[in-house]
Amino acid sequence: MRNKKSILIVDDDKMLSGAIKSWMEEYGHAVACSDNGLDAINLSKERDFDMILIDYNMPRLKGDMVCRLIRYHRPDGYIVGFSSEAKDREFIIAGANKFIYKGEFTRNFYLLHQLVQMTP
Fold first, then answer.
1. How far apart are CA 80 and CA 100, in angstroms?
2. Taking the alpha carbons of 89, 71, 111, 46 in that order, is the dihedral positive or negative?
3. How far apart are CA 119 and CA 25, in angstroms?
């Protein structure tokens, strides 16, 4: 695939992150998953991801804090916050490029693929 992207999915829901991972890999993308914010921060320091997708509700560190800490050392990274709750303001303040509601892409993973293709 010519537009292969590297994606980091940060979500403690392993079934959902596994489904997103499988779907994105079908499109030829390289996908890593983290089920907690601390590991995600470390992974983002080690590897340069085209997109980092961060859930809001996770144990220990909420998604907006994970976003803020990743943004600190990856100022040009493309970060997408997501949640089943209206947490768009929290993510945007934390430095996310975009926010999407979980329901929007769990019903249609193709929407997520389109978003990945638009990353710089």
1. 7
2. negative
3. 17
Residue whose entry in the numeric block shows the structure tokens 């389109």:
114
Across 90-115, average pLDDT: 80
Q: Does residue 82 surpass a pLDDT of 70?
A: yes
Domain range list for the chain: 6-115
Instruction: Using alpha carbons, select from 75, 81, 74, 88 the residue that is nearest to residue 41.
Output: 74
The superfamily CATH assigns to domain 6-115 is Response regulator (3.40.50.2300)
* CA neighbor of 71 nearest in space, from 55, 48, 94, 92: 94
Q: What is the 8-class DSSP label of residue 105?
A: H
3-state class (DSSP) for residue 9:
strand
pLDDT digits (tens, 9 = 90+) for 29-75: 999 999 999 999 999 999 999 999 999 999 889 999 999 999 999 99
